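We close this part of the discussion by returning to an individual protein. Part of our work consisted of pairing the sequence of a single chain with a tokenised description of its backbone. No coordinates are needed to read the tokens, only the vocabulary itself. The amino acid sequence and the backbone structure tokens for this protein are reproduced below:
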Amino acid sequence: MSTPASHVWKPSGARSVTIDSFIPVTRGSTAVAPPLLSWPTKDPGDTLDYEVDISPVLVGNDGDSIATHDVTVTPDNPGDLSVSSTTVDGRRCVFWLAEGQSGTTYTVT
């Protein structure tokens, strides 16, 4: 008798970014951009999962979740970093990045 295999996927904590909250700005003032978030260096031969979690931002809004998402990478030339897959899990957006050029810094939005 065979036993069905089960797989539980859990993203790496090393490649997870949590958005803590939105910064309130008083009317008539100019918002200052927060520092850029960053992940550890990726080897061009790896395809790795990356996660953005907005749970803390939505505290008290139990019915809210991510409805749609769009992940883009710049620069976007042949052989550069590419998005191989994306998914949304409630309040987390998870995407897998592949390829890339050594020594190049990419912006993921």
Remarks:
- The chain is about 0% helix and 25% strand.
- The chain has a mean pLDDT of 83.
- Residues 60 and 73 are 32 Å apart (CA to CA).
- The longest strand covers residues 82-89.
